[in-house]
Write a structure and sequence with these properties.
The complex is a heterodimer of chains A (135) and B (324).
Chain A lengths: L6 E7 L6 H12 L3 E9 L1 H11 L3 E6 L4 H14 L6 E5 L3 H9 L4 E3 L5 H17 L1
Chain B lengths: L7 H9 L3 H13 L1 H14 L5 E6 L5 H14 L5 E6 L8 E3 L14 E6 L4 H17 L5 E6 L3 H8 L3 E6 L6 H5 L9 E4 L7 H17 L2 H5 L5 E3 L8 H18 L1 H30 L2 H11 L5 H13 L2
Parallel strand pairs in B: 1-5, 1-6, 2-4, 2-5, 6-7, 7-8
Classes of the chains: A alpha/beta (135), B alpha/beta (324).
């Protein structure tokens, strides 16, 4: 069981206007009892880092539908590391299976592909947070 | 590595030196409540006392966040570091929340402001303590003004907004007629009215209804007593019109508070309310424990046997605690 209220930041990084999925994810996490800080479209690594600091986020979820994940994913983990933020990053959206390993190697905590169920979304985010807590 | 395990005095010191992450963590501690939160609030209280507190309130979708975003920008241009506490409701069913105020406060990259979203977390008591404590900590680390944004429904929200130094109430065209405007509540605590989305039909009607309401305050002598008539500003926050006027009105109201000396009254009111809330919560949280003591059990027994009523039992218990 969770011992505290999880606070999760959700954002779209860069030029990618497909926000139907991320809104569904926001609702799924809310219904699982989490507090979702929704940043919306066209965020930068800098704006996400600033929000993560101010909101004391437990996790960050990025939605990617523009095939930019192999560029932007590592950019985000770099930015977090540079800021000294030890916050798990979960990427969701259209990510081909063969790209997952590269993302994980770059420091992404988990990847949720198309077809992930609501339960999977919740358990993946929860697991990423408790893994960080125990590290 | 758990954030809550870092010692509070250390976090506080680093927040004072401008470390944003430490401030973020302290706000989390405050949100969780309890003894540790009280420690943080206590430390902050010693350093606070110079920030002007602005409440921005109005119905969902009226444009509070968009207006707040504009204000942050304008304050920043005149050399002020703004902190924002954006309060949104938690789901009463799951305890979760979607906090979306930051979307409307975009384009603030690089500006020296601090935005924190806070969910109501189901219990109004917790919010009643967390909000003042958050104001204190923003104030202590040097943010001025501190803007509190709340949906204007529920007693706590009205209290929070009503005890700000300056309360801005945002309304939109089509909010209802003059009768609605005269209903008691949020409109009464307004120091500044913003009719947002003023490009929409009905904006002038909304303005007229508010003017009419304020005129009645003039007739009843309310205006004379306070020496202040709330201005009504027509705005379109999306475009940015009306934001400058709102900023001017906030500064004007701050000036009025200082000149008339009512700033002291407001500050005292705020402190009074906070202490009162704390007393209620302290006594309330002990209620269950007391019922498990001999005193409690005896009284429950007496009520069960219809010797005394529940109201009498409660009075007997409270009196014996207070006389202790």
């Amino acid at each position: 069981m969770r011992n505290r209220q999880y606070r999760v930041i959700l954002a779209k990084l860069g030029l990618d206007g497909h926000d139907r999925g991320i809104k569904v994810v926001a609702r799924i996490l809310r219904d699982a009892g989490m507090e979702v800080i929704y940043l919306g479209l066209r965020q930068t690594t800098g704006s996400i880092v600033a929000a993560a600091e101010e909101e004391d986020a437990d996790a960050i979820g990025l939605s990617m539908h523009n095939a930019g994940h192999l560029t932007l994913g590592p950019k985000m983990t770099d930015a977090l590391q540079e800021a000294g933020l030890d916050i798990p990053l979960v990427i969701g959206g259209i990510v081909p299976d063969e790209d997952v390993e590269e993302l994980i190697n770059s420091g992404v905590a988990a990847v949720l592909g198309p077809g992930a169920s609501a339960e999977e979304v919740v358990s993946t985010v929860s697991a990423a947070i408790s893994a960080r807590d125990q590290a | 590595m758990n954030s809550s395990q870092e010692p509070i005095p250390q976090l506080f010191k680093s927040a004072l030196s401008g470390e944003r992450r430490s401030l973020g963590k302290l706000l989390t501690v405050i949100e969780r409540g309890g003894e540790t939160a009280d420690t943080v609030a206590g430390l902050a209280h010693q350093k606070a006392g110079s920030a002007h507190v602005v409440g921005v309130t109005g119905a969902p979708g009226s444009g509070k966040s968009t207006l707040t975003g504009r204000l942050i920008d304008l304050f920043s241009k005149t050399g002020y570091k703004t902190a924002v506490l954006a309060v949104d409701p938690s789901s009463p069913l799951t305890g979760g929340a979607i906090l979306g105020d930051r979307i409307r406060m975009d384009d603030l990259a690089g500006e020296d402001c601090f935005i924190r979203s806070m969910a109501t977390r189901g219990h109004s008591g917790g919010l009643a303590l967390a909000v003042p404590a958050a104001i204190q900590i923003f104030d202590a680390v040097g943010y001025n003004p501190v803007i509190i944004e709340t949906v204007g429904v529920g007693q706590v929200e009205v209290d929070v907004a009503g005890t700000a130094d300056t309360t801005v109430v945002v309304v939109t065209p089509g909010m209802g007629d003059a009768v609605q405007a005269n209903k008691a509540g949020l409109l009464e605590v307004a120091d500044i009215f913003v009719v947002n989305k003023a490009d929409r039909p009905g904006a002038n009607d909304a303005r007229r209804d508010l003017e009419l309401m304020l005129d009645l305050g003039h007739v009843s002598g309310l205006e004379e007593k306070t020496g202040y008539r709330p201005p009504i500003i027509m705005a379109n926050s999306l475009e940015g019109t009306g934001s400058e006027e709102t900023l001017k009105a906030i500064k004007g109201h701050a000036e009025h508070l200082k000149k008339s000396g009512s700033i002291k009254i407001r500050q005292k009111q705020r402190i009074l309310m906070e202490i009162q809330n704390r007393i209620e919560i302290l006594i309330g949280s002990n209620a269950k424990e007391v019922l498990e003591t001999d005193l409690g059990i005896a009284n429950i027994e007496a009520v069960l046997n219809r010797v005394i009523s529940p109201a009498e039992a409660a009075k007997l218990i409270v009196n014996s605690i207070l006389n202790d």
